[in-house]
Amino acid sequence: MPTDESGLVHHLGYADSLNVAISICLTYTLIFTCVRIHLRRSSFGADDVVVIFATIAAMVHFATSYACLTAGLGKAYDMIKNNIGQLSSTAVASAVTFILALYIAKIAALVFLMRIQSKTRNPRLYVVLIALYTILGIASAIVVSAGCPSSSGYYWNIAANIDSCPGEEARWQVMTALDVISEAILLVLPVHLVWSLQMPQKRKLMIVITFWTRLPTIPLSIIRQTYTSHLASSSSPHPVDISLASTLVTILMAIELTYALISCTLTTSKNFTDGFSTGFGMGHMPGAAESYNLSAVGGGSSSGGGTGTGSKWGYRSQIATG
């Protein structure tokens, strides 16, 4: 760390780290979305469209994060306090777009699950959940931003915003709780999906594990909230630089959102699921562009030991409907 003429040590800040983190997250988001579009080009569906919308929303979030960087985020607070109004405006925009993009990614997972079983079960549950998640996303974005004008001070200076943005820490706690609960529901739904499939329990477990690649979003959300709570206690006994601390929150938001979007592609990639010997996800039969097949999970129920089109696309599983 550099020192001034008096010998005091100054923190260089996290501006470079923020720039690198946003750039990496942006790159991975675009790569995985493009890979998904390429893999699904012959069976493009509603879930793919939703993923594209989630990616666009994520691009807006990354743009606002870059705007925060330009406004001084990542530098020591004393260096940017004269430009705090602009930084606060972009910080609010970054928080709102993060939440909206995150919930659109969740909705993409719901649409994917609904598309899988649309031919065998009533999709009413998923329609209700999609509507609920839409409401939760919009409500969460409103909760964290309502009544917090940029003119009143830096948005992430939670400890100093008691009057200008009351209950800001509690708002983020509610947002994170809803985030974790909604993710937990997405982890339970695949169990419900395979419960009535006629296949060995081991293969059911493998399918569930494939969907559970999105599990890390829960600890990422909790870690983000932990660092957010630090912003509410930035006074005594151990004061922190609010700009530097909020930079870490911004980085964690980018990481959480990026992984949520990546997991949407991982759970639909045939190459990925083939690694679990399930053949689940990308297999489809000609003319079945609007539905997925649960492939290669029927065990010995298929006659002929696996010939014909099954060698390329796998066999459709048998789903008990009664």
Automatic annotation (TrEMBL):
Superkingdom of source: Eukaryota
The UniProt record lists the keyword Membrane: yes
InterPro entries assigned: Rhodopsin_dom_fungi (IPR049326)
Keywords, sorted A to Z: Membrane, Transmembrane, Transmembrane helix
Pfam families reported for this sequence: Fung_rhodopsin (PF20684)
Domain Rhodopsin: from-to ranges: 35-271
Transmembrane segments: 20-39, 51-72, 92-113, 125-146, 172-193, 205-222, 242-262
PANTHER family per record: INTEGRAL MEMBRANE PROTEIN
Official protein name in the record: Rhodopsin domain-containing protein
Source organism per UniProt: Aureobasidium pullulans
